[in-house]
Amino acid sequence: xxxxxxxxxxxxxxxxxxxxxxxxxxxxxxxxxxxxxxxxxxxxxxxxxxxxxxxxxxxxxxxxxxxxxxxxxxxxxxxxxxxxxxxxxxxxxxxxxxxxxxxxxxxxxxxxxxxxxx
Length: 118
What we know:
Blueprint: H1 2-14, H2 20-30, H3 36-43, H4 47-68, H5 70-88, H6 95-110
Helix pairs in contact: 1-2, 1-4, 2-4, 3-4, 5-6
């Protein structure tokens, strides 16, 4: 399950690098939890064909992450923000200061989002 979650995260970041067919098959596999047989039936190809496309797409995503590291960096940033929030959760602040603090943390977390907020 963890492997599937990781693949989904890689897909979220690097999907534009894949062909339309790879995107479709990887999304069915990660997001819809479809089996190879189910995907093969939907796509009108063999189970082995689905496996080959999954492997090629997955390899490309993992190679890109190894070179670029966006998912790893985002995970580190998220952990730091969580630790920072936990460290200061009991510090007494005025309401407006608490709101500003939370707003800054939300902005930091949002850096990894697309400009459209996706």
